[in-house]
Amino acid sequence: MIGLNMQVRRAQAQDYRQISSLIFHEANTHRHLDWHSVLEWIGGANYWVLEENGLVTAAFACPEEPPSVAWIRLFAHHPRFPASEVWSVLWETARADIYRSEPQTKVAAIVLKQWFQNLLVSSGFENDENVVLLRLGELTYRSYSPPRGLRIRLMRMEDLPFVAEVDLLAFGSFWHNALDSLQRAYAHALHATVAEDDSGVIGYQLSTGNAFGVHLARLGVKPEAQGRGVASALVVEMVRSLGINSTRALSVNTQSKNAASLALYRKLGFTRTGEYFPVFVYPSRDGQ
Prior knowledge:
Shape: elongated
Strand order of the largest sheet: 5-7-14-8-13-12-11-10-9
Mean pLDDT: 92
Radius of gyration: 21 Å
Helix content: 25-40%
Number of domains: 2
Number of helices: 7
Strand content: 25-35%
């Protein structure tokens, strides 16, 4: 049980070592799929710890990036404390603080573990949609040529502000990756390209490498340029450049509600693997 000597306070720089030790217990840790390390957020807004006599026994972080969307990037607790009790104390503190200043903020989480989903449900979070995994079988557009006037080239650092603009327009505020996240993604990319026409950058893709092959981490096209084959051109160029074939798998994630994205990947030869990650959202209307 939560003892009388426990207090909730904001995480500080000096908590780095203790939080690092706490998240070593992976079985008791939820971490967001992110370009950031959960330790990088320490000292920022919406990061709390539960402390007992100087010992950090639990941590919770949901910084707002992008603005008005607070993804739960960390919840971790020491194994000797019940998850439900620790969660309740930290979440109630966070909820009150977040909605007092920003009542329209959406707090959300991508669920990787069933025990964490149970905690979210118990606190009123709702399953809004799922992130689904797809894998390329056989590319159906190997002889594909880009649309007239479209140029695909390697992404440069100076492109990133324009890429961030494309990302916001393509994905909306909820799924948007801010400039800082895109800079980190670019730094880790195996292959990053932009599509441009006479108006400038209208689309982009960022792909990463892993032990299983290649992952198409991000693919975005400006709404006014969609339907012209820009996204297909970006994917086909990436497949050709990286030499992806039957022995080098290509995977991608997208949202179950994103019908246009699912149709594009199906057209290119991707199929759903059956794996998915639920997305839970706390209703902002109840947070006031």
